[in-house]
Specification:
This protein is an all-beta fold. 0% of the residues lie in helices and 50% in strands. The chain is built from no helices and eleven strands. Strands 2, 4, 5, 6, 9, 10 and 11 form a seven-stranded mixed beta sheet that branches. The chain has a four-stranded antiparallel beta sheet with strand order 1-3-8-7, with no helix packed on it. The chain starts with a strand and ends with a strand.
Length: 118
């Protein structure tokens, strides 16, 4: 199993970023996918999740209306579109693949840093 995140970086408050997670080594379309984040000194938290066929999504209250999770099963890739970014969104963002929906476990990517600062 390999999950490789990309798209992180430094962005000003109010800006946007699009994260991508390229998956390989497992049947991608059979796995639920999620994005988690971990800020310094804080626990890892669920940001967004999407079912294996993209029929349902879940978001943390703190990102509802600003972030959108999507997936392309033909490309074995899951995305996180992040708009109206706030300083409190600063964290390392991790991609997760799991047989179970929106719970920790399964396989993790190495993470990508997102920093929101002026």
């Amino acid at each position: 199993v390999q999950l490789v995140e990309s798209g992180g970086g430094l962005v000003q408050p109010g800006g946007s970023l699009r994260l991508a997670c390229a998956a390989s080594g497992f049947p991608f379309s059979s796995y639920h996918m999620s994005w988690y984040r971990q800020a310094p000194g804080k626990e890892r938290e669920l940001v967004a999740a999407i079912t294996s066929v993209g029929s349902m999504t879940t978001y943390a209250d703190s990102v509802k209306g600003r972030f959108t999770i999507s997936r392309d099963n033909a490309k074995n890739t899951v995305y996180l579109q992040m708009n109206s970014l706030k300083p409190e969104d600063t964290a390392v963002y991790f991609c997760n693949a799991n047989r179970f929906y929106a719970v920790p476990g399964g396989s993790w990517g190495q993470g990508t840093q997102v920093t929101v600062s002026s």
